Amino acid sequence: MDLITLEKVELRATADLHCHLRQDAMMHLVTPYIEKGGCDTALVMPNLQPPITQISQVVAYHEALSQIAPGVKFLMTLYLHPTVTPDVIAAAAQSKIIYGVKLYPAGVTTNSHDGVLDIEQYYPVFEAMQAHDLVLNLHGETPDAEVLKAEAAFVPTLHKLHAAFPRLRIVLEHVSTANGVEAVRQCGPTVAATITAHHLFMTTENAEQDVHCFCKPIAKTLEDRIALLRAAVDGSGRFFFGSDSAPHPVQSKEQTNTAAGCFTQGWVTVLVVDALRQAVEMGWISNHDIAQKTLEGFLSTYGREFYKIADPSDSSKRRIRLEKSDEIIPKSIVSSDGKIEVVPYRRGERVMSLSWIDKP
Question: Whole-model pTM?
Answer without folding.
Answer: 0.96
